[in-house]
Amino acid sequence: MSIQGQLLDVTVVGCSRLKDTEWISRQDPYVCLEYANTKFRTRTCTDGGKNPTFQEKTVIPLIEGLREISVAVWNSNTITFDSFIGSGRIQLQKVLSQGYDDSSWTLQTKSGKFAGEVKLILHFAGTHQQQQQQHGHQQPKPPESNHPMSTPPPYMHMAPPTSSSYAPPPAYPSPMNAYSATNPAYSSTYLPAPYPSSTYPPPAYPPAAYPPTAYPSQPYPPAPANPYHAPGPHSGIYPPPPY
Description:
It is a single chain. The protein is mainly beta. Helices cover 10% and strands 26% of the residues. The strands form two sheets. Strands 1, 4, 7, 8 and 9 form a five-stranded antiparallel sheet that branches. The longest helix has 10 residues.
């Protein structure tokens, strides 16, 4: 299957252990990708130092026969030209065959020395489409049964059962008769004695006289009680005479 014109999703995750090109301050790295005429540059990670993070995504149209992407990492300078940190090549064989690749790729200086690593996530949807075309994307048929399907019997109308179809329930003996049979002293019938009739309204009581009979009058103020005599030989003279 040709990859001409198909799209490759590329995500620049970040870099690690980069060569430090700054002597005083922290360096400000950025990543550049190049594939044929397609070029992509990430934002500058200010003060990213040796381990910058980007998390930026781009889409690259593929060309038949070109199976690698060039990558370069630079340090952004405000006064002088940007400083080169390192470069490398991203191989596409794994992502084109498996559909996914999240490897880290080595960077080298111009003299071939180690300059750090860059991590990319590559995703190619054409691999899944190619596998579907190879296998035909056919759904498996259900297995055929060796037993022929039997025709269900015709529906038969059943009439509801009548009351005569069931025997009546057995009659239970009266509990009063059964009790009388076990104890002959008691009669099978019981009639309570009638209550005496009462006349209504009840007879009237004799009226009571009102107001009631007056009590005998008493003199006011009441008569004085017996006078009090002090003990001793003297009569009731006060003060008593001297001795």
